[in-house]
Amino acid sequence: MTFAAIGLALLFDRHATRVAVADLEARAMALIATIERGEAGGIRTRPIALDPRYDMPFSGAYWQMRIGERMLHSRSLWDVTLVPPEQPPPAGASAVIALEGPQEQSLLAVDRGLLLGNGPDAQAVRLIVAVDRRALSQARSAFIGDLLPYLAVLGALFLLASWVQIRVGLRPLSQVGARVATLDSGQNNRLGEDFPTEVVPLAREIDQLLDARDRDLARARHRAADLAHGFKTPLQALLGDAELLRGRGEHEVAQAIEEVVGVMHSHVDRELARARIHSDHGHARTDPAVVIDKIAKVLARTPRGGEILWQIEAPSGFFARIDGDDLIEVLGALMENALRFARHSLRVTLRAEEAVLVVTIRDDGPGVPESQLEALPERGRRLDQTPGGQGSGWPSPRISSRPHAAIWSCGMPIPASRSGSP
């Protein structure tokens, strides 16, 4: 808007200057019409009512005429003589010049030349008609003052239009951002193409990248499974050889082979689990309440489970980013362990804490000694060495203990708010 105001002011100034020059040209022609020859053959000017300002000293409107060596001027110049350029314009032509007037006024002037008479008796006449530029400056200032409010309103409208255009133009990108968030939360597995035409190529490229990723993960998972199956037969053969060695009395060698085979089995199982977890990342979606209810029903049918009071507080409708089988494996081990040591009751609760679902398992058993709490979450760590235990390990739970109670709490990420829609 600043540049627009400057440009409009310059245009107005040029227009006002052209109007002022045209007015000065008309005044010059009117003054030329007053020139006439006297009875003795001399040249004189007859009076004419042209502009009252020409009779007011230093009024800002002036004229000056040189006829040969004779100088005539308006009363408004008083005793001041305008000093034009030395070279006058040709006869019949005019020029627009800037002059210094009385009282340091800056004048816009029209300098006109003409000849009176014919032949060698013709006399040169130089006429200057001038006006103070302050009138032009005041007109320009008034124009800018009138223009500024409209420019301010126009600028505000431009800003509003730009804001609306940016908002409307970038709205498809915000839709893409929201859809990408659903990919990360597991609500969707592809962006789709229900976008404006300009954004569809971007969404299509992202979906193609996701397809390529899934294909690579599937190939990696299949290779891992093939590798595991390829190892199983040789490992079983080694176990058979270990049994033969033990039958021959070579117990130490058999024990060493079995230990090596066990380590290799654990490595293979771990890599298979890792491949499965990575392949399901972002797509797994499980309702923990359903898993908790399923585990509780199975354990309640056991002789020990029928003797205690079950308290399940797990509202449905929450979804966690975890495979259902993995969650059964984790919560099943924890709930079975709590059942073994519970005296009269076992309580399982499910609640949401911001972006995490927390499952808490409480029993009224003897609890865990304070000195052993820090070591308990380690993978495969077991405080009870009786057969049948599994250790906690994964996921590392938050554990606390107090007399006659043990509390197990583990968190899972939530892919979306409490909603059943994907």
Mean pLDDT: 78
Proportion in β-strands? 15-25%
Please report the number of helical segments: 6
Strand order of the largest sheet: 4-3-7-6-5
When the domains are counted, the total is 3
Specify the overall morphology: rod-shaped
Number of strands: 12
Fold and architecture overview:
Keywords: Kinase, Membrane, Phosphoprotein, Transferase, Transmembrane, Transmembrane helix. Its EC number is 2.7.13.3. The longest helix has 52 residues, at 134-185. The strands form 3 sheets. A 5-stranded antiparallel β-sheet has the order 4-3-7-6-5. The protein has a 5-stranded mixed β-sheet with strand order 8-9-10-12-11, with helices on one face. Helix 1 packs antiparallel against helix 2 (134-185), helix 3 (200-247) packs antiparallel against helix 4 (251-280) and helix 5 crosses helix 6 (324-341). The two termini are 50 Å apart. The protein has 3 domains: 2-140; 200-280, Helix Hairpins, CATH 1.10.287; 288-413, Histidine kinase-like ATPase, C-terminal domain (Heat Shock Protein 90), CATH 3.30.565. Helix 6 (324-341) links the parallel strand 8 (309-313) and strand 9 (345-353). It has 6 helices and 12 strands. It is α+β, with helices and mostly antiparallel strands.
